[in-house]
Design goal:
- By secondary structure, the protein is α+β, with helices and mostly antiparallel strands.
- It has 16 helices and eight strands.
- A five-stranded mixed β-sheet has the order 1-2-3-4-5, covered by helices on one side.
Length: 389
């Protein structure tokens, strides 16, 4: 029987109608092997992959149109075809998700199949799992109830903190949503869990804290870690971007660090103050590889997790409730204290808001440079130690 082959476009699929005889209609995509749109007698449309596996016809349902876009349906179909080429039966895999998956195996699938390919922050998901979800890892996802997750959420909130509890539930919800996308037929037990109210964090280094912070930082024996914290403070950049800073991104001629892709998915030019340039120039003169903050113990070749060093630093400085991310907030706060407006601060920190986008587009780096220099000088003026770390 000849197949009804068409080029899948949104307009084309919207115009397709059900058969008059009440039978299900199939139209096949001309681009991806086996990908079809199935239309029931009621007009419901869903993407399927129809292929022979081990000599028998199999229909693998991907999702409903238009909730599932054509682009994503094609990606999913390619993944199904890849599994078939490896001798796997995707429908059997779906059944195994329901029968065999534990939280641990679901998380492994979530990271390898989804997060690593679609999330820049997947390492953060791994840390969240290790810190908060491990106690659930041997439980089968088919027996986990909403009431159990509510107790789990409350336990983390009381013992560790509301923010941590909410992020753990966010990750767990995302994992179950993916399991459902992959064929799990159970409910997501995280749906309807009321999260704790969170206050916007306003922590930054105050004037009376900076001298202690700088002294503790200069007492750090590990130069890589010491310089990492300095550059985090002096640039206001996100931790991930600083960790992966490489020498190709640095222009000593223009005093600019060009981040190829930020959390917002865009390129960002970061002005480097005089203090930052001195640190980077010294590091460049003794560089060992492409990374500004190298590590001989990591697979990536660069520094990956400075958490232990950060705890040591705070203990020496006798500071509490300060996170690495608060260094980013510190630069912005000192820019504000030295007269910068919100648009300049937003541009220097790589913020992206709808209201500010048009204004950012008209700004060049000069007022940002002036603001960062002014804020940096104000912070270092409080230091009773040499300006050169």
């Amino acid at each position: 029987m000849a197949l009804n082959k068409i080029n899948f476009t949104k307009k084309t699929l919207e115009e397709l109608t059900a058969k008059h005889d009440g039978k299900r209609a199939y139209y096949y995509d001309i681009k991806i092997r086996g990908l079809a749109i199935a239309i029931t007698r009621t007009g419901n449309k869903s993407f399927v992959v129809y292929r022979k596996i081990e000599g028998k016809p199999e229909r693998i349902t991907l999702g409903n149109f238009p909730n599932l876009s054509i682009e994503n349906a094609r990606k999913m179909a390619e993944e199904v075809n890849s599994q078939i080429a490896q001798g796997k039966n995707p429908n059997k895999a779906k059944k195994q998700i329901h029968l065999e998956f534990t939280i641990k195996s679901l998380f492994t699938e979530y990271i390898d199949r989804y997060a690593k390919n679609h999330k820049k922050s997947w390492q953060g998901d791994k840390n969240l799992y290790d810190y908060y979800l491990k106690e659930l890892e041997n439980k089968k996802i088919s027996i986990i109830k909403k009431s159990e997750i509510e107790i789990f959420h409350a336990k983390i909130g009381e013992g560790i903190g509301k923010y941590a509890a909410n992020r753990a539930i966010d990750l767990l919800r995302s994992m179950f949503n993916k399991a459902i996308d992959w064929g799990y037929e159970g409910a997501n037990p995280c749906i309807g869990i009321k999260k704790f109210k969170e206050k916007s964090r306003e922590r930054f280094l105050h004037a009376e804290e900076l001298p202690k912070f700088f002294k503790a930082l200069n007492d750090e024996s590990n130069e890589v870690l010491r310089d990492f914290f300095y550059i985090s403070l002096l640039t206001g950049a996100r931790k991930t971007n600083v960790l992966t800073m490489n020498w190709d991104q640095i222009s000593f001629e223009r005093n600019v660090w060009q981040i190829e892709e930020t959390k917002n998915g865009e390129m960002q030019n970061v002005h480097l103050s005089e203090e930052a340039i001195k640190i980077l120039q010294k590091r460049y003169n003794s560089k060992v590889n492409e990374w500004v903050f190298p590590s001989s113990s990591s697979k990536s070749g660069h520094l990956e997790e400075p958490k232990s060093a950060w705890k040591r630093l705070l203990k020496r400085a006798e500071l509490q409730d300060l996170r690495i991310h608060d260094l980013r907030r510190t630069l912005g706060s000192w820019q504000a204290a030295t007269g910068a407006n919100s648009y300049i601060i937003g541009k220097s920190l790589g913020h992206k808001t709808q209201a500010a986008t048009a204004i950012y587009a008209r700004l060049n780096l000069d007022p940002v440079r002036e603001s960062v220099n002014k804020a940096t000088s104000a912070m270092f003026a409080l230091m009773n130690v040499d300006k050169n770390p």
